[in-house]
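To the team - GCB complex, inputs and output below.
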Amino acid sequence: MTFDDPYYHLHDEDYAAPFAKVRAVHADMIAMGGRKRIPLSGTWRFTTDLFDEGLRQKWYRDPPDTPADWRIPRDYEDAAADLVPVPSCWTVQKPEWRYFEGSGWYVRHFSFPPAHHGERVFLRVGAANYQAIVFLNGIFLASHRGGSTPFFIDVTAHLQPGDNRLMIAVDNRRRPERVPMHHCDWFNHGGLYREVDLVVVPAVFIKDIVVTLVPDGSFGTIAAHVEISEALDSAVDLAIPELGIAARIPVTAGRGTLRLAARPELWSPATPRLYEVEARLGGDVVRERIGFREIKVRGHEILLNGQPLYLRGICVHEDDAELGKATTEADLRRRFTHVRELGANFVRLAHYPHHERAAELADELGILLWEEIPVYWAIDFANPGTYADAENQLLEMIRRDRNRASVIIWGVGNENADTDARYAFMSRLAHAARGADPTRLISAACLINRQTFCIEDRLAADLDVIGLNEYFGWYEPDMTGLERLIENSRPGKPVVISECGADAEAGHIGAPGALFSEEHQVDVFRRQLQILARADYVQGFCPWIMYDFQTERRHTRHQRGWNRKGLIAGDKATKKRAFHFLAEHYRSLNR
Ligand code: GCB
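Output:
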């Protein structure tokens, strides 16, 4: 049977192999600060494809004509597809797509004059959950793994005059080898749920620019690292007018670093000062707003700009009853307003990289962030392909957000049992994070040792801050376990309670001890805080979670498809008693 045989695809189980050979990865990313985007957001065509027929039958090779023009029958037609908005999750577009897990084909036609004067045109996809395979004008360009980070594909050579047909097959299937794997506690929304843009740059352009305060305790040196698109010797002009900086970064074989004496006003939650930073290479300009601050640990302390910092935190998912995982400016602003009302200074963006606008806003508002990748629960730690995927997601997240002063912690995982394979995998990730960004703290949300009731995780040696998820008062009703844990542990570094909490259905009033009641939720927090106050190494409290969120796992009468540990209900408006309790507690802290 040959490739052109009409029945070939029925027996071709290697149909997906070619698409794994060309992947868009972190090294393909382009600095986006201030760049002009040509949006491809708007209305797209969309078809669900449960059996991967599109890849098997090569739908992308067929021209978008109508059945009247076909010589042989087909199983797919652009014009027969549904119309959907991009960005969006298909899971919220139609009731019958709610639980659809498979490939969804997105098609968008656009006209774009072929690039001239050596310009290059890139496609930027803000996020596609989980895998995306991109075709332009019938040709496969690249695929991408990872549901929450952006990717870039050079489309310059494939643009044609007049109409261009962009097809993206997005696959949200859960699989054991993915990151996250098939089992997790949030809803598996599928789709092109962040913005899709074209970006036009000159032939040689600034690929990456990172400007930071050197964390040497002097608060007097700024470092700039630049990467340009070609391995050339050149120079990039750097300007920070408000600091009187106009300097030239020498570039050798595509990369350059410069250190400069400077005394910026330091960024902090109280003074979220941002500076306009401009990098210029010929006609190419990248503009960022950057805050300068130092984050460090010393013994049990976390120091921000040399001052002890206690993290008054709250976790949050990217989840919305109407939008699914898609994010709007209004949703983000409401979230940060609630963070302020709670008196929090810190947000854990769980359990995957959130929309990049979250960190931009946090920079402006003075809110500290923990960002993480979805190395969640039982990852296939022994699988090298899984590691490559996780590390790429980590480096994409870091590359996207490392000019954001608000981000103080990179999280490399959540609640992974302490096995040898997991230790090898995650210590390697911690090392990769540190290598990519030595100016932030590395953490992971760890588990406690239930035999010894102790904070004891081999990974702790590779972390700056130990995140600790514990659910005493809820999954483990006996709070004396927490007391024992605190007595037994000598972690030798700061610990942040990265999760704790209890489900409460808004309006379900009971008494302490009555599961799913608002009183019980408050009681869990009250008792938690009393015990944790005894541990000088606990330098932050970041309970689970700001809002109730959707998840396929939870089906009791009080849950009905929602995790109800929110301080605020899923309407993002109804505050539970625990919100007010925690707000009062945070206000009472003199730190
Ligand atoms: C956890 C997980 C989080 C869950 C939460 C819960 O430990 O990290 O993703 O949603 O517990 O509510 O059980």
